[in-house]
Amino acid sequence: MSSPKSSSSGKDGSAKKNSKMPAYSRFSQQELPAWKPILTPGLVIATFTVVGIIFIPLGLITLFASERVVEIDYRYDEDCVPQKNSKEAVVYIQSTDTNKTCSKKLIVQQQMKSPVYVYYQLDNFYQNHRRYVKSRNDHQLRSKSAELDTGNCDPESVTPADNTNKSQLPIVPCGLIAWSMFNDTYRLSIKNKDLVINKKNIAWSSDKSTKFGKDVYPKNFQSHGLIGGAKLNNSIPLSEQEDLIVWMRTAALPTFRKLYGKIESDLEANDELEVTIQNNYNTYSFGGTKKLVLSTTTWIGGKNDFLGMAYITVGGLSLAIAVAFILLYVIKPRPLGDPSCLSWNRNPLLLK
Question: Angle 41-67/306-331 helices, nearest 10 degrees?
Answer without folding.
Answer: 160
